[in-house]
Amino acid sequence: MDDILFSTPDNPTPPNHTAGYFEGVRGARLRYAIFRSEMSPARGTVVLLQGRNEFIEKYYETIRELNAMGLWVATFDLRGQGGSARLLKALRKGHVRRFSDYERDLDLFLEKIVLPDARLPFFLIAHSTGALIALSAAPRLANRIDRMALAAPFIALTNQAMPERWVRLLSATLSRLGLGSRSMGKDQSNRPFPGNPLTSDLARFDRNAAIIAAHPELTIGAPTARWLHETLVAASRATQQAHLTRITTPTLLIAPMRDGVVPYGAQETLSRNFRAAQLVTITGARHEVFHERDIYRRQAMAAIEAFMPGSEQVADFSDSEA
User: Among 296, 300, 261, which Cα is nearest to 279's?
Assistant: First the structure.
């Protein structure tokens, strides 16, 4: 188990955990971990879904805080990234064959790992691509997941080299031509702090960069055309009114207003069409709200703590520390 998860000097592995691998769709070897709270009895289990090019180690701080709330945390690296199996011979390419593979992996994780080994009730917290996976799968999760918190769901693109409609057209064309494994964009895994769209917190940015420097095998580069095509098609489908009305799980939408990856306006529009959702805006926060400065991050964590045990109301944290 010690060689499954990694620690760095300023990012130690939380205690009382189990780690291993399970078999996802098409035999993909996926790395997972369960982190247990010392509180007894536990208040439940959070299923944590990461964003693109993320990994379990990046969420140690958030996992510790959820454990302190009395919640277990069950998480896994998405296929093609982190400590999970890569899908192409070119290991740096961020690829997926079908977006539905992500959803089926989540189903298998719940069936094989979470339901047998974790503590009821089950909640879900997801970021970016993970939040899109949860949003897409939500109609069939109602009998297993009591509540969801979706942070900066990947439902649209902003600040790209070309308009989103061109990205959609180009990625779809390449995929149809059998060129879906071609990379689109630049490798941003080692981007500098100045001007980054992810976080305004230098200490957390440096901490995550130190993990990557120590374990570069956890990261991937630019997404492939197929990944973009599959993900953007899923985003279009999952944000349609017909889909959203099928979701009955109470949901918290955490929207960072200075998101440099997903336009805030798209997240706000989603909340208006999503009857089961409640919007919490984090004024000033960038895309990775769980890796942001305390003034922003605490708002998200406080909203989650109030919402997850079952309260129907979440206080307005949007400007509480601004």
Answer: 300
Among 276, 257, 315, residue whose Cα is nearest residue 149? 276
Higher pLDDT, 312 or 195: 195
**Which tokens sit at 282?**
């984090």
The span from the CA of 287 to the CA of 178, in Å, is: 32
pTM here is 0.94
- Residue 52 is classified by DSSP as T
Separation between Cα atoms, residue 202 and residue 181, nearest integer Å: 34
CA atoms within 13 A on the CB side of 142: 10
91 touches 57 (CB < 8 A): no
Distances (CA, A) of 154 to 28, 207, 259: 23, 24, 11
Distance CA 1, CA 217 (A): 18
Q: What is the mean pLDDT of residues 198-225?
A: 96
Long-range CB contact pairs, 191-196, < 8 A, 24+: 196/260, 196/286
CA trace torsion 214, 50, 122, 153 (10° rounding): 160
H or E stretch covering 172: helix 164-176
Q: Say if residue 250 is preceded by a cis peptide, omega within 30 of 0.
A: no
- Separation CA 258–CA 98 (nearest Å): 30
Q: Which of 108, 100, 112, 142 is nearest to 124 (CA)?
A: 142
The whole-angstrom separation of Cα 160 and Cα 174 is: 18
How many helices, marked H, and strands, marked E, lie in the chain? 10, 8
Say if CB 229 and CB 171 are below 8 A apart: yes
HSE of 62 in the Cβ direction (CA atoms, 13 Å)? 29
- CA angle 95–100–103, rounded 5-degree value: 105
Q: Is the pLDDT of residue 227 over 50?
A: yes
Residues 130, 51 contacting (CB under 8 angstroms) = yes
Cα–Cα distances (Å) from 19 to 22, 110, 254, in that order, read 10, 15, 29
